[in-house]
Design a protein that fits this description.
Layout lengths: L7 H26 L4 H29 L20 H4 L4 H25 L3 H30 L2 H31 L1 H11 L2 H26 L10 H18 L9 H26 L4 H24 L1
Helix pairs in contact: 1-2, 1-4, 2-5, 4-5, 6-8, 6-9, 6-10, 6-11, 7-8, 7-11, 8-9, 10-11
Length: 317
């Protein structure tokens, strides 16, 4: 249905379900952040309480005007209506992104009430919708004030540090482990096959098999190694997916050049890709693991050289 075709009862019904959905999203946010982000949890609990108050006022007016039955009309039933993502998708957001999403939701609610006022003729309905539009605007300012106060008190800095730690534990570490394994462990079989056969097609098949196999193996190993409940490393299958994908990517990077038919060209490009991969690993270790760049670079490049040397010796022997 189109917004312009809605009657006053339908507008109130949509407003009720919208407040219910927004309140539930804020409660989900609060629950998600309760353990590690108390300042953000406090903000979303207050916002959830405010949405609940709006819902009660809307239901009370609806019952007076139209009776006990409230039809279930959602925002996504109306064309050109902004609908926030589901709470399941939002639950994976970091605190600062969740706050940004909440600000968008408040702006969307205010704009809806401002448009709805123009659609309604009943004085009581117009008054309530107008009041709610003003309150949503005040909510935006109150949320900004809470953010500013929490930032001044240092609470947001603490949360930012915790969020960074969780990002490292849940994404960077498994991804780095996979990238290192894929970039280094596949070197020996790939270059051994290349030097042994001198055939780029055969080398590509070996590298592809090694990369995909390593990705599957590392993904399952990471997912099954820790359920994340005690360590705080998050959902095991997300970590496993990140680790597996990065393992495959690390191996495929220097495997793809063997699609070239010219052996020397393929080998030259593959070796250049290996250098780039090893430097990326060193950069990640320096950026997120506080490892000195020169030390990280030496360790990774030395390891990669030894594996490449092993592949060359085995393949050429």
């Amino acid at each position: 249905m189109r917004f312009s075709d809605l009657n006053e009862a339908q507008i109130l019904a949509i407003a009720i379900t919208a407040e219910e959905e927004d309140g539930r999203i804020y409660r989900d946010f609060a629950q998600e952040f309760r353990k590690n982000f108390p300042a953000t949890t406090e903000l979303f609990e207050r916002m959830s309480d405010q949405e609940s108050g709006h819902r009660h006022r809307l239901i009370e007016l609806y019952r007076k005007k139209f009776g006990e039955h409230i039809p279930l009309i959602r925002r996504n039933d109306v064309k050109d209506f902004w609908v926030p993502p589901s709470s399941m998708l939002l639950s994976s957001l970091r605190p600062e992104k969740a706050r940004e999403q909440a600000a968008l939701m408040e702006v969307g609610a205010r704009r809806f009430y401002e448009a709805a006022v123009l659609k309604c003729k009943d004085a009581a309905i117009r008054q309530l919708l107008g009041d709610l539009a003003q309150e949503e605007q005040r909510h935006e300012k109150v949320a900004e004030q809470i953010n500013e106060k929490q930032a001044a008190d240092g609470e947001l800095d603490i949360e930012e540090h915790v969020a960074r730690q969780q990002f490292v534990l849940r994404i960077v570490q498994p991804g780095l482990a996979g990238l290192m394994d894929g970039s280094v462990s596949t070197l020996a079989p790939l270059f051994a096959a290349a030097f042994a056969t001198g055939n780029t097609a055969d080398a590509f098949k070996v590298g592809l098999a090694a990369s995909v196999g390593a990705g599957i193996s590392m993904g399952f190993a990471e997912a099954l190694s820790d359920d994340g409940k005690i360590s705080g490393r998050g959902t095991p299958w997300i970590r496993g997916g990140v680790c597996g994908i990065m393992t495959a990517v690390g191996g495929l990077g220097h495997t793809l050049p063997f699609l070239f038919r010219d052996f020397h060209l393929a080998m030259t490009v593959a070796m250049a890709v290996v250098v780039v991969e090893l430097n990326i690993i060193a950069l990640i270790r320096w950026r997120y693991m506080d490892t000195p760049f020169l030390s990280a670079g030496f360790q990774v490049i030395a390891g990669g050289f030894l594996v490449f040397l092993a592949g060359w010796i085995i393949g050429a022997g």
